[in-house]
Design a protein that fits this description.
The chain is of the alpha+beta class. The chain is built from 5 helices and 14 strands. It has a single domain, classed as Glutamine Phosphoribosylpyrophosphate, subunit 1, domain 1 (4-Layer Sandwich). The C terminus is likely disordered.
Length: 267
């Protein structure tokens, strides 16, 4: 299973961003380095999943393929609200092509991004109704004054939601990266038998409609969407400490193996 969330954060200078965060564990053939947030062929939205990986991951890839295949969807002529409607129809068609039944917990998504039509960030959690094989959407809203737009999915969603609410009951400015810090505390304490674990993943969407994954510093390693990076990897994305919220410049230099060096000219 999974815990994943999307929320709108506000920096001290008033700039808002939309954040996606999740854990990195899949069960079955267990791995703590599994990507759960998918950036899409258009730069103003993203998608994440929770539930049965065998069902949700192929569905998520087909949603990305559908956006890539249609120019107005790919180039943002269609607002994300219109794209969301198409994705719901596509999910309904895809789930009927499986020969095994799924429960409500097996198929969950968050689709979110910046809407040029409403000039605001929008977040939808998407759920499944097994009896009718239909999908429904629920738009994200706030549950405390410091966080006015958020959605959570996964079997740990209620526990994380409660911890975020407790964190934000304290007086202070509008929330920014506090939900990420709460998620990191759960993942730091996760046990091998828990359904969540691994490093946090983070993707940020800006109001000028750019999507940027972050490398996450986790237990002495730099990770990207759950995967620990090699020492020699040069990555263009900025890095973040999920506990302190400190952001670091991208890796500019790394180890270069002598075998990859250009040959020296012959004298």
């Amino acid at each position: 299973m999974t815990v994943a969330l999307a929320w709108v954060g506000r920096r001290n200078d008033g700039v808002q961003h939309l954040y996606f965060a999740s854990d990195s564990r899949v069960t079955g053939a267990r791995s703590d380095a599994s990507p759960k947030i998918l950036t899409l062929p258009r730069s103003d939205c993203a998608l994440c999943f929770a539930g049965d990986t065998h069902a949700t991951y192929p569905m998520m890839l087909q949603l990305a393929n559908a956006i890539a295949a249609h120019q107005p969807a790919r180039e943002r002529s269609l607002d994300i609200s219109r794209v969301k409607d198409h994705l719901l129809r596509l999910l309904k068609d895809l789930v009927r092509r499986y020969e095994v039944p799924f429960s409500k917990a097996d198929i969950q998504f968050i689709f979110a991004g910046y809407s040029w039509r409403s000039k605001d960030f929008r977040i939808w959690s998407i759920g499944y109704l097994p009896k009718t094989k239909e999908f429904y959407e629920r738009e994200g809203s706030g549950f405390c004054p410091r966080l006015n737009k958020v959605s959570l999915i996964g079997d740990w969603a209620k526990r994380v939601r409660g911890a975020v609410a407790k964190e934000l009951l304290k007086p202070g400015p509008a929330a920014n990266l506090e939900p990420l810090r709460v998620l990191a505390s759960f993942l730091d304490a996760a046990k091998p038998e828990d359904s969540i674990g691994g490093p946090p993943q983070l993707v940020r969407i800006s109001q000028h409609m750019t999507t940027r994954p972050f490398c996450v510093k986790w237990k002495g390693e730099d990770t990207l969407l759950g995967r620990p990076l090699f020492d020699y990897e040069n990555v263009d994305y900025w890095s973040i400490d999920p506990v302190t919220g400190e952001i670091f410049l991208p890796r500019k230099f790394g180890h270069r193996d002598e075998r990859d060096a250009e040959p020296k000219p012959q004298e």
